[in-house]
Design goal:
The structure is a homodimer of 346-residue chains. The first copy, chain A, is α+β, with helices and mostly antiparallel strands and 346 residues long. In chain A, 34% of the residues lie in helices and 23% in strands. Chain A has two domains: 147 residues, 60s Ribosomal Protein L30, Chain: A (2-Layer Sandwich); 169 residues, Phosphoribosyl-aminoimidazole Synthetase, Chain A, domain 2. Strand 3 of chain A pairs antiparallel with strand 2 of chain B, so a sheet runs across the interface.
Chain lengths: 346, 346
């Protein structure tokens, strides 16, 4: 973003701003009949499919920090966290509608950067950006994203549906986004103390990307089709693994058992956890924002799921009476508890 | 709302708050497969119909003022302004998803009041409330509402589509919401000056309701079906009549001519405009938030549309070369200009 000549939002006005932001949005999905420019976007769904709707509200100072989050990444992330919800229903994102409330401290160029990130996410994941709305806020930036997706009726996967003896699986690796956040917070404190200091991010690329530019696992949804697997239940990991596993278990009215040593953790996450004197599994269990998928499959699907690259079996489902348990690396059995990221809780 | 014992949001936490707010939401529409409780709501659309999506972001201090807006009305209004968008596409609202960012100054009971208003709106207009999400904000209250609707493919009505010689029609009456706002602002100033003063709202019930509890014209959508009319273009009046008429004309690449004396204005609006020394037509042209429908029909439909109660023909469509014109009560022809409500413009 050039900072040489910034345009104030008041120069364009609301309609002018929206026109500028949405001028290059061209629908690509067959189900998108009309995008921006009218009172509502217009979609058409084939029969035999379900329409999915998810919504997220991202708040400056709560969900992102303007000090260390590049604007484009804020836009990208606000889009893909909703694409992740589509994946968690075993579906794919198709359309996106965005609302932003903007305080006067933002320039038009800053808002365009955020939109650029959103457009990039839509491009990467084949989503049509079909509605944009901006309004003013007195304090801070608020981004509201609604994503519409679809899934074949026969493949929809809810949080409920896990049965005792099902295998508990997770995609990718966990805890990285949280370690990335800790590094960013550390550098922010250092920068506050001494603005001339150069941030020390060398070797942290992976965990920083996990925090700033997460990728939703729509690829796993495709692999499940290819391998003829329909999970019995699924959720995405936006809070920590512990919180999501308990969510899944409660929705399915079952218990869950997780082997600590099976939890997939990247070397970069592991090493950084060491620096911060945090047990790596704790970062995975209680950190958040990994946007991996947590799901269950029937035991009969063991071989099929073992063939899917990037999926790890970390535990199994039990009767509800057995509760939710963590089997530690030392073979102790302890109650699985959600510390989570419950922002509104003390 | 009883103020005897208020619950802080931190007592419940985010999940607890959402559970409490959404416990009584029961889907009614056949197209709603699943509402709250999973990663996304699940909808199913019949073939032969289009799905409509609209979104609005309401910001405390910008779109509503907590001093004079009852919480229930804030909830009601934030829902129905989106139902109005569905009507403006000649469709009906079916599902609603809500996100709220809440600062710690709000109690759980306050949030429940807002939800009560939203639920009431859903009940009145037959809409399923299928998703709710709350998060924290550092300052103020932000409400993001997404509404999903449907319309038969053959009946969808866009902003574009008006042709020269079409009749320009409006539902209900205009300017009332703006006059209601002026009364509320006046009383707020009076209250600030002397908190013991009793607000003087007698005789203002109609315009106050127009401002605080607008009703979307989904009834008109039904009447258009009954009278076998498909408008050639349509928009809802959230900004002033002038702004929306120009919007319609620009989208359709035509000109518009409006007769000032034909603009429908309620007696209560007319009288209050007099008190404020405002020309009533100016309140209708440049005030906003009436949420009536502005639409065009072919001249051949003149008799049919004349039979629809509550619809007024206020002008006609011309070639684009003739521009957008207002024919004043004194028979002067002046250019129609949008003062509007462009909140982001200086």
């Amino acid at each position: 973003m050039s900072t040489s000549k910034l345009t104030s939002i008041s120069e364009l006005g609301e309609f002018g701003l929206i026109d500028r932001l949405t001028a290059d949005l061209k629908p690509k999905n067959l189900s998108t009949v009309l995008g921006v420019g009218d009172d509502a976007a217009v979609l058409k769904t084939d029969s035999g499919k379900y329409t999915l709707v998810s919504k997220d509200l991202l708040v400056e100072g709560v969900h992102f920090d303007m000090v260390y989050s590049p604007l484009k990444h804020i836009g990208y992330k606000s889009a893909v966290v909703n694409f992740s919800d589509m994946a968690a229903m075993n579906g794919v994102p198709k359309q996106m509608v965005v609302g932003m409330a903007i305080s006067s401290k933002f320039s038009v160029e800053a808002i365009e950067e955020i939109y650029e990130g959103m457009k990039k996410a839509c491009e990467v994941y084949g989503v049509d950006f079909v509605g944009g709305d901006t309004t003013s806020s007195l304090h801070g930036l608020f981004i509201s994203v609604t994503v519409i997706g679809e899934v074949e009726e026969s493949r929809i996967t809810y949080r409920k549906g896990a049965q005792p003896n099902d295998l508990l699986c997770v995609t990718g690796d966990l805890g990285g986004a949280y370690m990335g956040l800790l590094v960013l917070e550390r550098e922010k404190q250092g920068f506050k103390a001494n603005p001339n200091i150069q941030p020390d991010m060398a070797g942290k690329e992976y965990i920083l990307q996990r925090q700033l530019k997460p990728e939703p696992r729509t690829d796993v949804v495709k692999k499940l089709v290819e391998n003829d697997i329909i999970p019995t239940s699924m959720i995405d990991i936006s809070d920590g693994l512990a919180s999501e596993a308990i969510h899944l278990a409660n929705s399915s009215e079952v218990g869950v058992a997780i082997y600590e040593e099976k939890i997939p953790i990247d070397q970069n996450t592991f090493d950084t956890a060491g620096e911060f004197k945090i047990v790596p599994a704790v970062a995975a269990l209680n950190g958040g924002e990994d946007y991996e998928l947590l799901f269950t499959v029937k035991q009969d699907d063991f071989e099929k799921i073992s063939n899917v690259e990037g999926v790890t079996i970390i535990g199994y489902i039990t009767d509800a009476s057995e509760g939710n348990r963590l089997i530690t690396s030392g073979n102790q059995v302890i109650e699985l508890k959600a510390q989570g990221w419950d922002g509104l809780k003390k």
